[in-house]
Amino acid sequence: MTTQTPIDPNRPTKLPKIRRVEVYWHTVTYKTVAMYISLGAVIIMASLYLLVPGMFTSITDRVSRAVGNVDAGSVSNLQTQAKFVNLDGKVQVKKVNSVQWATADYRTSLDKGDLVQTGSEGAARITFADGTTYTVKSDTLVTVEENSMAANKPTSVAMRINVGAVDLATPNWSSPNSKAAVSAEDTKAELRPNSRASVKNDPINKQSDILVSRGSAQVQRGIEKIDVQQWEKATIPTGGAIQKSMVLAPPDLILPRNLEPITAEVPKTAPLHFEWKPVPEAVSYMLRVSRTKMFTNIEAERRGVTGTSVELTGLDAGDYFWNIIATDAKKQTSEVSETFKFSLVAQGKAQDMMLEIEEPQIHGRVAEIIGRTEPGAALIINGQPVANIARDGTFRHFTVPLEPGQHTIVIIGQNRRGGTAQKQISIVVPK
């Protein structure tokens, strides 16, 4: 008889032996994953192109439009930014979503609803993406009223003068029907392309003025509309009808030419000759010279000049700007003339520069000036800077169209050491 040893419950049961499990893995970098995903996408797109070309075209078109829209949106955002291009004195900005004023700088961008305020000696020039420029005069508060810069559509920019004065200049817009405006109280002036106007708002005297110095503008208040042409002024009294009148035109400047360098051994004592063209109705003129383009600080001033020229002394070496204001017998003053820039340079005898001019060539009414100067020098021919000077100093310049007859071409140069040179050549433009 077979017997079995009984199992002791207190004795642990021997467990079966478990075989060892080994786990292996391979590390894959994100770069490798991305490469395989890209490879898979290429294989899928290639298969679609071969098997279903219509679907492939549809997908690529959608992707292109989506990417294009994103890019267009980015460009649009950049284009809507208005920037400060000149700042003088105290200029502050209050953003539309802020309650605090901040000092303006060249990194400050302006959007619809922003406020700009200038101090008693402050001024600012603001340029919009469409090329329209607003110059905010001293003691002025303005609001950016409109700034529409949609791609491939007419642009629209506008500012409101709460108090003070603004100069507005428009370019030749690439898109027709673009608009640039400035408003004061209940009146709006809309400038046409290539126009310039000065607008003032005086709440104390309850009157606004709009003077057009180039091109034309349309002034509107309610249902009343009038066109204002060059050297006309629209006066808008509160509660009265719009009045239009002619104004005195400013003179054209002659000397010093724009961007002309003037050399002197002792600049402080050197007499500087200023000359301008006469205005028929004018009885006197005022000359202003400043180190800033917006004339917030005047270096020299001459009032009541009865002729068309004057000489000044006492200016140190440096860069200067000058302009003229005319006055007629009724004590009415013109707008400020165009502003020219000149440089006053201290020069010794050893600072002369090399400047060689060949015989000029006449092409119809245009003169071609060919010559050579020092590398890195700056040249001005009849008030126009020479844009293309080669590394070896050779240059070729075409003048603006000239009237038939005899002309004197003035070439002025300045090198990096402060040395200057000036030459004059006579040409005859045939009829």
What does this structure look like?
This protein is mostly beta strands and 431 residues long. The protein contains two helices and 33 strands. It has a 17-stranded mixed sheet that branches. It has a five-stranded mixed sheet with strand order 19-25-24-21-22, with no helix packed on it. Helix 1 (30-51) crosses helix 2 (53-79). Residues 63-79 have low confidence and may be disordered.
Question: Keyphrases for this structure?
Answer:
single chain, 431 residues, mainly beta, 17-stranded mixed beta sheet, globular
Instruction: Please tell me how large the radius of gyration is.
Output: 36 Å
Topology, number of strands:
33
State the end-to-end CA separation.
148 Å
Strand content: 35-45%
Major beta-sheet overview: 17 strands, mixed
Silhouette: globular
Q: Can you give the mean pLDDT?
A: 83
Q: Low-confidence parts, pLDDT < 50 over ≥5 residues?
A: 63-79
| Class by alpha and beta content | mainly beta
Query: What share of the residues lie within helices?
Result: 10-25%
Instruction: Count helical runs.
Output: 2
